[in-house]
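Late entry, written up from scratch paper. The run itself happened at the end of the previous shift, but nothing got recorded in the book at the time, so transcribing now.
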Amino acid sequence: MLYTNPMIGGKRPHGFTIVEVVIVLGVTSALFISTVLVVNGRQATADFDQAIGVVQSRIQQVMDDVTNGFYPLGNSFTCTAPASGEPNLSGPSMNGQGQNSGCVFLGKIMQFDVLSKPQTIYTYSLVGRQCTDGQAIGNGSATCDTPKTLADAYPVGLLPSANPLGSKEDSTETTQIGAQLEVVNMYYNNNPAQKTRSVAFITNPSSLSSATNGITAGTESAQLYVDKAVTTQQSQQTYNGNLDCTSISCPNYQQVSNVNICLSDGSPNRSALIDIGDHGRQLAVNLSIKGTAGCS
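Output as recorded:
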């Protein structure tokens, strides 16, 4: 009988068995997948942090713009105030920082969670009457009766579309936030049931009043408002009267103590809560990172 000796020179043949190769490939694949998941997770977290920073910075910038009386349109329009009613907007010409002939820059309103564009923040400017008696400081008049309330100032939103009283200029500013970040909830006065999709920073006309200088933006901190007409996801705002006031009241504006914005990128274990409010001090924007998807 013939026997075959597997030993050659007293040694086993070189190489690995199929089982050994399969084990090595399995371990290597597992390590590779784990590494990819860790790297992707860290990148997603970095993208989330960056996008949240963009939102926080944009809100702070809008607050600063209102405090400093910054007009986004430069010399692109003229604002005049008739003897009564809301200001008229037309043609180019500007007379100074934060004011025009009979008009004054009052503030800005930010719209979040826009329909079909949830990752875009839209910001619009508001202008109002400098005087309530049809005069204009610096335009042949040294004094005037200045607005005492927001309704007295007749705020008008500089939005796209047509103003029934004349040409409506478009002051729309857009901010892209990225990282698939979207608004999960937005509410005011610490009450999740009081929903909104907008926040406004408006200078108080009465605090800027002066018998000799009228009202000039950029000399007072902003106050916090919401537009009560925007409570759910809506299309980009166009002129529809929502941002305007009557001589009696401003039905859609409500001054509030704080606004909360909960943002998420769809991850089940992270979200961000932005709190805008004075909390007994000057308006500030505070950020809290949460370990859940709903800012709880």
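Residues 93-99, 162-168, 209-219 have pLDDT under 50 and may be disordered.
(Scratch paper discarded after transcription.)
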